[in-house]
Design brief:
elongated
């Protein structure tokens, strides 16, 4: 008997062969999703804070907003949720995965870089979908009626989530965990303030508005307001800003991501 027929077909079950790319991606996505769900502080950042901001800004009239307030608030809260999950939460979790050797052990077990990054991205996408569905249901209960076509918001959300995911992996995959913990929260707060994410910069100086629109948070929140609040198409400049951040962030993340 030749070596090719040493073991008849069916001897080993299941077949001792490499899984398909789809199976590997699905398994790693749910692995990353379980890690995200187990971290209570990340859920707080990703869900409770946007939900509290949505309800608070709708009823607290101390901050001047266009009426109806819920229509002004909801696009910014969507942006806040995407930023919290795809950037801050992902950057911190990735950094501590590297610090505690989790990423290195995954590499030793055969998980390739593309699979790690794709699994993290898919897990983040699932969490964002859950967030947006829940926030939208609460907004509708509070009286939200989108003025434009909600479907137009989908490509903007995908592009914004891709940009923030790339930035989160870049930050968490290149710096020390302690530095990422401080920087991720600082950048998150800065983008909220400078980009007018939650409160539009309607009365801010012109230069600050221009700078804010160049940030991914400002570009995403303004384009979502164009679509959902004013019933208009998003500006081409906002879409270009999001696309540029996506390309730059992912290019740098793939180039400089470190396992430890």
């Amino acid at each position: 008997m030749s070596s090719d027929h040493l073991f008849p077909p069916g001897t080993f079950a299941p077949a001792a062969a490499r899984s398909s790319l789809g199976s590997m991606l699905r398994a790693h996505t749910f692995f990353e999703l379980r890690l995200l769900v187990r971290n209570g502080e990340q859920l707080l950042l990703a869900l409770v804070i946007p939900l509290a901001a949505l309800i608070g800004l709708t009823y607290f009239t101390g901050i001047e907003l266009q009426e109806p307030r819920i229509a002004s608030v909801t696009p910014g809260i969507w942006t806040l949720a995407v930023m919290s999950t795809a950037f801050t939460s992902l950057a911190i979790s990735t950094a501590f995965d590297r610090r505690y050797g989790t990423a290195k052990r995954l590499a030793a077990s055969g998980v390739q870089r593309w699979l790690l990054l794709a699994g993290k991205s898919c897990a983040i996408g699932i969490v964002i979908v859950f967030q947006l569905v829940l926030l939208s249901l609460v907004a509708v209960i509070l009286g939200w009626k989108p003025q434009g076509t909600v479907v137009w918001a989908l490509p903007l959300l995908v592009l914004g989530a891709a940009a923030f995911t790339g930035l989160g992996i870049l930050l968490g995959g290149t710096l020390r965990a302690e530095a990422v913990l401080a920087l991720a929260n600082l950048i998150w707060l800065s983008m909220i303030a400078i980009g007018g994410v939650v409160i539009p910069l309607t009365s801010a100086p012109r230069w600050l508005d221009v700078v804010g629109q160049l940030t991914p948070g400002g570009a995403l929140s303004s384009s979502l307001r164009d679509v959902l609040q004013h019933g208009q198409s998003p500006s081409a400049s906002a879409v270009l800003v999001l696309a540029a951040w996506t390309v730059l962030a992912w290019g740098a993340a793939v180039r400089w991501f470190s396992w430890q």
